[in-house]
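Note to self: user wants both folds in one dump. Writing first protein now.
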Amino acid sequence: MPSVEEPVLTPPELTPPEWIVLAVICEGRTHGREVTRLLAPYGEVGHVWNVQKATIYRSINRLTDFGLIRSAGEEPSHRGPVRFMVEATDAGQAAVASWLRRPVQHTRDIRSELLIKLALLDRSGADPHDLLVAQRALMVPIMAALESRISAATGFDRTLLLWRYETASAAIRFLDATVSEPSEPTARS
């Protein structure tokens, strides 16, 4: 019997770890232990942004409540209790696709949120070009605004503005270098 898509509740703003858990679940039917393995500090995704086990299971519950994932049966395990499987709903797939293409709003999030998006896009074989171009377009006016304020600033305010300007400048150089690279998504085994 085909499963019926559950009604989607409008979720409150998801946290970055919830987005990451949802993105991993969108890769295919899975269970909490596998998501935990992938998001552990030594995991395929966790080396970019690790998510603690308790946060993963809390995220699975919230994402289920929001209609972004659903139960997908059980799987026996030779190494412990029965595993409860989950899969993304169509709404979950659409939400992740949108999130992965949305540039981060703050320069400070380039190192964390943008990199995890790039890693997840690479895992899925998707081309990150549009995200990188959108991110650069968002960063250019930020850098220009910071530059215009530096000369009038004094004391620690100047130090802080210089730090932010140099960080934004480095981010733009990174984006330029990444956009100019030929896109070769990694094939997952």
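First done. Writing the second protein, which came from a different request thread.
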Amino acid sequence: MQVSTGRKVLLVISSGLDTFSKATYQDALQAAGQSGMPIYAIDLGPVIRSLASLSSNTVPYARLDWPRAESGLQRIAQASGGRMYALPPTLDLAGVYDDLMENLRVRYVITYKPTADPDMNGARTVRIELIDSRTGGPLRIVDASGRLVRSKVIVEDSYVPHGSPAEATTAFRTGN
């Protein structure tokens, strides 16, 4: 048996509608936030609504709370450090998969472990610098054609010390 190493993610392809779960939405949201694994959600809701509009009996679909379903998928993806993609009715996945793969290649998660044990609930300031290990200077990132790419840090959640009631993961991605 071969064990896969490296980062793992969960890809969820869903309409966002919950038709038979025993767990509550809050349970799912909490589990996503504590999983340590980013969840990337592909929302099929727009496709289902488009197909339903072609049917002569659209009544069952008209009663569904589509904005709530989309918002729920979005919140689960964000809680895990992932992202949600809403599909166009044409089912063109090429752009979604390209963005997903690019995001996976440039995403990093920073874990902070303090050396001392001061106030565990106190806020911390974290500074992120991208340093070239060969020169000790700022890291220069170039694309495939050799053009300089400006790095940026996107903080998805604020940092809260491990073990506190509102524990969260701080994630960032670099690139353009």
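Dump finished. Worth passing along: The longest helix spans residues 66-80.
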